Amino acid sequence: MKSVMIAVRVSLLFMIVCGLIYPLATTGVAQVLFSKQANGSLIESEGVVIGSELLAQSFESPKLFHPRASAAKYDPTASSGSNTVVASSDYAAAMAEKIAAWKLENPKLTDIPADIVTVSGSGFDPDLSPEGAKAQVPRISKETGITANVLNDLIDHMSKKRQLGIFGEPRVNVTELNMELLKQVKL
């Protein structure tokens, strides 16, 4: 009976420490040191939350930059990759369909960066390569009347470099890029 009481006390202690004290402490530290990230890295426009820096959103307008394709159709409650085998005929057919759709929407596009037509692992990658964004410039320029030079400069300005100079790839957040585009020109 004595060993049962010790086990119950130790269990209660660990439940309090691990289930209450530790989560409250880490949440408090995160709120103090990394408030924006702890609250979802939200993007606001005129006081209204319009999205998160961490999740891609669908942009249908030909006047805006389009993000990577999403296996989850941009639904944050259904996070998933496609799980399609790259060597399968289904994958090849899907890629051919996406490439054809991009060529139809962007007729001046000769080289299609891979990230434009491939799905990210989570299905919510908010970033495109600068090349992926620049591939859309002719379409956006035609639709908005904004010169290609202005759009390319905007992409260069909004692009993020490799972290610490070695980790990751250069990238541009499509939601932030579109927000900046909308600030500069009323569409």
From TrEMBL:
Annotated membrane topology: Single-pass membrane protein
What transmembrane ranges does the database entry give? Answer: none
InterPro entries assigned: KdpC (IPR003820)
State where the protein is found.
Cell membrane
Keyword ATP-binding in the entry? The reply is: yes
Q: Does the keyword Membrane apply?
A: yes
Keyword list, A-Z: ATP-binding, Cell membrane, Ion transport, Membrane, Nucleotide-binding, Potassium, Potassium transport, Transmembrane, Transmembrane helix, Transport
- Stored PANTHER family: POTASSIUM-TRANSPORTING ATPASE C CHAIN, POTASSIUM-TRANSPORTING ATPASE KDPC SUBUNIT
Q: Which family does it belong to?
A: Belongs to the KdpC family.
What is this protein's function? Answer: Part of the high-affinity ATP-driven potassium transport (or Kdp) system, which catalyzes the hydrolysis of ATP coupled with the electrogenic transport of potassium into the cytoplasm. This subunit acts as a catalytic chaperone that increases the ATP-binding affinity of the ATP-hydrolyzing subunit KdpB by the formation of a transient KdpB/KdpC/ATP ternary complex.
Q: How does it assemble?
A: The system is composed of three essential subunits: KdpA, KdpB and KdpC.
Q: What is this protein called?
A: Potassium-transporting ATPase KdpC subunit
**Which species does this protein come from?**
Paenibacillus plantarum
